[in-house]
Amino acid sequence: MSDRVPTGEWLRGVLETCVLQTMTDRPTYGYAIITALAAAGLGEIKGGTLYPLLARLEKKGLVSVEWRAGDGGPGRKYFALTAAGREELKAAREQWGVFVTTVSTHLAVDVDREATQEVPR
Amino acid sequence: MNATPAVQPAAGDHSVPGDVWSRDFVHRHRKWCEDFVLELRLVDVPGRVIGDRLAEVESHCVETGQFPEEAFGDAAAYGKAVVAEAGRGSSVGVWSTALLSAGQVLVLFVGSGAAARWAHDKLLTYNAVQVVCLVGVVLLVALLPKALGAVIRRPLVVGVPYLSLGVAAGVGAALVSGLALPVIVSLSAAPVAVGLFVVSVLLSVVSYVNLRRSEDPVVSPLAGEPTGDSALSGSRTDRRVSLYSSFVFPVIYVILAMMNWVA
């Protein structure tokens, strides 16, 4: 992918959905979410970005929280999807699918036009 | 799991959540933590919510080995981001404290002046300039909650001029008393001096009750470090601070009145 591609800007629009996705199997905590997103190729999300977003999800009732004792650490705040969170994730997945199809179709049309205009003499 | 936003102590811990200032992490990153807490305190975010957000920072930094500056950036900027999500708290306590303090300052100025007049068996009189100066001092104290953020963040640019303005108004009120200006208020000094001392004590009692009621320590949901003893000692210290800060005005009142009496 080109360096000029604004993946950060694209990600901003879907980061909430991507974060919700990391909680589908089990409750998880901040650092594990950052690791999961990085492993998925979405880059390294800073704590300063993630935790306010998690607080927003909590405020919306999409996740629930619980402090648990950590392994040798001070403790971890676990986030789990609520029923409303699962519904939100499902709806977001569908909307994202439609969006990707729309954008892909649009970009493909542009590529076809360029191909016809650049016919060699 | 909780369906509602809540802060719970870590599982297996049955102790009372502790004061964040006794945590090792907060000691090691004191400046960042203080700036962060200040930003949230200025808009009255509840102590438990601040403690919860600070615990997120601690937990994350311990896990990743990062410094708070690396993971969360500037403390004040991150504080603003947290406020945007957590919302502002009720500012009733801050404003009532400011109004009580403004009342105490007014009582102090007028009462100590009355004591001096009483000593010389004269009437307590005020001209228009003195009244304006007194109103200025009272307004500066009463509006402090509004200006507090700027006063703390920019002490030289805002803090010093704010304080200087208050001092100038207070000194101005005393200096213009000697000028030959028309008197607009004239009262018998003895009852004013005695009555305002009683008012000062009453305001102190109300202020103490108000401070004790609105106490909202920043507590961490994390287990481990703070002991029951430190929490108890912190509570005793808080009570002493509330007591001293509430009753300092009647004490100053008596000292000023005595100084004016013998002068």
Automatic annotation (TrEMBL), chain A:
Domain spans labelled Transcription regulator PadR N-terminal: 19-90
InterPro entries reported in the protein's UniProt record: Metal_resp_DNA-bind_regulator, Tscrpt_reg_PadR_N, WH-like_DNA-bd_sf, WH_DNA-bd_sf
SUPFAM superfamilies: Winged helix' DNA-binding domain
Superkingdom of the source species: Bacteria
One Pfam family it belongs to: PadR
Coiled coil spans: none
PANTHER family: PADR-FAMILY TRANSCRIPTIONAL REGULATOR, TRANSCRIPTIONAL REGULATOR RV3488
Record's protein name: PadR family transcriptional regulator
TrEMBL record, chain B:
Keyword Membrane: yes
TM segment ranges: 98-118, 124-144, 156-184, 190-211, 241-262
Highest taxon listed in the record's lineage: Bacteria
Keywords: Membrane, Transmembrane, Transmembrane helix
Protein name: Uncharacterized protein
Lineage start: Bacteria, Bacillati, Actinomycetota, Actinomycetes, Micrococcales
